[in-house]
Amino acid sequence: MLPGMPAHLPILEEDLAAYRRDGAVVLRGVLDASALALLEAGVEEAYHNRNQRHSVVRNAEGKGETLVEQYPSQHSPSLAALVASGVPGQIAARAMGTPSAQLVLDQIFYKCPGPVAATPWHQDTPFLRVRGDDLVRVWLCADPSPADLTVQVVRGSHRWNVVYNTRSMAASPVVPAREGDFANDQLGDAHLPLVPDVAGQRESFEILRFDVEPGDALIFQGNVLHGAEGRADYPLGRRAFASLWGGPLLRYHRSEGKTFPPPGGEPPEGKIADGAPIGQYETAFPVGWRET
Ligand SMILES: O=C(O)CCC(=O)C(=O)O
User: Fold this and answer.
1) What is the reported pTM?
2) Structural domains of the chain in order of their starting residue, each with its CATH number
3) 139 CB less than 6 Å from ligand 1?
């Protein structure tokens, strides 16, 4: 057991059943005061001290500011402590029903007060060097987030058995703030099918929406289609830290396009074999929680 890790988190069996069925669920009040304090401090540390792997996104009118940053836990001491506490990893392992959870990616989605840009509909899978079912996001918001601004999911889409392109069929509702910033069309396997236009055809999909409060954890499966709406103005801002976890049998995937590297880097002995279970590569995908 990692130091400082709680022995047990208040997670209900019925919530885990809803996660397996729908691909997403909110675990209410699952963070205690110390985890919440680390989340709050961590999103601010990451926002004010950015690493190289970040981009700033604005809405189609060029307004609003969303900071998206990869691996903030590698330079924010509070987010590092939150990950090391074992809380997000234990939540993920419970959701997956696995004896351990390995970190695949962590990010912040820091939406500043004022105009809020939408998050385009996408899956997480095509951005990653992993494939499989044991893949779960733990999305923690430091602010009260109404259902339109919270991540929404297409119910059951984690079972569609398709990996989409990183590009959307719809015109992207957000524009990067600087040339050279994160551009979806450079990422992932280009031959994959385009993401359906969920935002433009909402009535064709069953969309799950959630109000969340600080202390809640929204968990969703890595293959699920998800996005968030924008707003002309939201005075509170919406600051989220999202870590993505895999079980030991999740498979390594060699993509043809650019993808986010494993948090621990590729192993020094060379590239990981395509299809190898990540449980064999704990340096590249560090364990955040393990059953004892
Ligand atoms: O917070 C958001 O708006 C986007 C989050 C997201 O896409 C994710 O966690 O995978």
Assistant:
1) 0.94
2) 13-287 (2.60.120.620)
3) yes
